[in-house]
Automatic annotation (TrEMBL):
<dbReference type="InterPro" id="IPR036188">
    <property type="entry name" value="FAD/NAD-bd_sf"/>
</dbReference>
<feature type="domain" description="FAD dependent oxidoreductase">
    <location>
        <begin position="7"/>
        <end position="362"/>
    </location>
</feature>
<dbReference type="InterPro" id="IPR006076">
    <property type="entry name" value="FAD-dep_OxRdtase"/>
</dbReference>
<dbReference type="Pfam" id="PF01266">
    <property type="entry name" value="DAO"/>
</dbReference>
<protein>
    <submittedName>
        <fullName>N-methyltryptophan oxidase</fullName>
    </submittedName>
</protein>
<dbReference type="GO" id="GO:0032981">
    <property type="term" value="P:mitochondrial respiratory chain complex I assembly"/>
</dbReference>
<keyword id="KW-0560">Oxidoreductase</keyword>
<dbReference type="GO" id="GO:0005737">
    <property type="term" value="C:cytoplasm"/>
</dbReference>
<dbReference type="GO" id="GO:0016491">
    <property type="term" value="F:oxidoreductase activity"/>
</dbReference>
Length: 393
């Protein structure tokens, strides 16, 4: 059996794993060998390629807001940050803003969240129903009390492009990508090793689990760590609308159903009801979700959507953290050299720049140097201290 060593092995080479690899390889204080193990080298079914790819600051917890404030700065400067041989990536960032809508029973939560967002520097406007009607004339506001609109710093982008930009930059810096499935083994004396499906074994003192949903159900289980991170299917639907609607943001209905522009049309989606949301075992599209819930909800909110032409649809997976729908990031107590970035529950693309930077700092220096990601530590699982994030979409 062939065997070799690396200073850091990262399992999962999509946006999160490639961000960690890229940030680590860019550090002046790190000179080690980095190997990324990716089971899906064409990235056909990874969440990064099938996401609605957006970024927002409209969270209710400081750490999530600060992660995305850094994220938008990174995305704006991605051409310079991830250029390779003068070739600057372009991810088509559109800062159209999120528009969160609130009925009277949820308005207080929206207002409280807005205060924190403003305090941390997010450019979010709190609007009453009159202001909503004036700014978005196509919107039905009869049941609403308020809305929050991201004036700058929120929007959507090419998620697959972001992943590939991190990957290309990492490879240019000497990071090696291996196309294989990996099985994790832990020897208390020799450290970590990854047995590849090719038969090769890689030994390493530092193992980073960025494998998405399989990172919880497979990699953590192999390492001896029980985490409530499971794959959940999320469907994205496209449609065209004959009537032009000006100034259309990424709209979040009070039900959690979302819609945003995509080229000349729109994409939309919604979490299915809890009793129709099992662990994902396929990527079949649930068209009844669109017909029974999403379309009627959107047509009631935007009357122009009563007459649409449905288009293509696809399904992907969230690595859903059933504990509190927030990521587990950082080192794992009692498991020397084992790091995780899992359970992003749909926020992985927008959080990849800050999490990649943070884990690179933690691996290199033993501490976070810029943004403190300790609130996302897996310690909160053992301490039964969930993060209370109100704006989960």
């Amino acid at each position: 059996m062939a065997q070799r060593t690396a200073d850091v092995v990262i399992i999962g080479g999509a946006v999160m794993g490639s961000s960690v690899a890229c940030h680590l390889a860019q550090r002046d204080d790190f000179r080690g060998r980095i190997i990324v193990v990716e089971a899906d080298p064409v990235y056909e079914i990874c969440a990064s390629a099938r996401s609605a790819a957006s970024i927002r600051q409209q969270f209710s917890t400081a750490v999530n807001i600060e992660i995305s404030l850094y994220g938008i700065r990174f995305l704006r400067e991605i051409g310079a940050a991830l250029a390779v041989d003068g070739d600057r990536p372009d991810i088509g960032l559109q800062e159209g803003g999120y528009l969160f809508l609130a009925t009277p029973d949820k308005a207080e939560i929206l207002q409280r969240n807005h205060l924190l967002q403003q305090e941390l520097g997010a450019d979010i406007a709190l609007l009453d129903t009159g202001e909503l009607r004036s700014k978005f004339s196509w919107l039905s506001v009869s049941d609403l009390e308020a809305g929050c609109h991201g004036l700058t710093g929120e929007g959507w982008f090419d998620g697959y492009g972001l992943m590939q930009a991190f990957r290309r930059k990492a490879r240019s810096l000497g990071v090696e990508y291996v196309s294989a499935r990996g099985t994790v083994e832990n020897n208390p004396e020799a450290g970590w090793s990854v047995l590849l499906s090719s038969g090769e074994r890689i030994s390493t003192p530092v193992l980073v689990n960025c494998a998405g949903a399989s990172g919880g159900t497979e990699i953590c289980a192999q390492a001896g760590l029980d985490v409530p991170v499971v794959p959940r299917k999320r469907c994205v639907f496209t449609f065209d609308c004959k009537e032009p609607l000006e100034n259309f943001p990424l709209l979040i209905d009070p039900t959690g159903t979302y819609v945003r522009p995509e080229g000349p049309g729109y994409i939309c989606g919604s979490a299915p009801p809890a009793d129709r949301d099992p662990d994902c075992t396929d990527l079949d599209v649930d068209y009844t979700l669109f017909e029974d819930h999403i379309w009627p909800t959107l047509a009631a909110r935007v009357p122009a959507f009563e007459a649409i032409r449905p288009g293509a649809a696809w399904a992907g997976t969230y690595d859903m953290n059933l504990f509190d729908h927030n990521a587990f990031v950082g080192s794992v107590p009692g498991m020397e050299g084992f790091f995780v970035a899992l359970g992003f529950s749909g926020h992985g693309l927008q959080q990849a720049p800050a999490v990649g930077r943070g884990l690179a700092e933690l691996i290199s220096t033993g501490a976070y140097q810029t943004l403190d990601l300790e609130p996302l530590s897996i310690r909160r699982l053992t301490e039964n201290a969930p993060i209370s994030e109100k704006n989960v979409v």
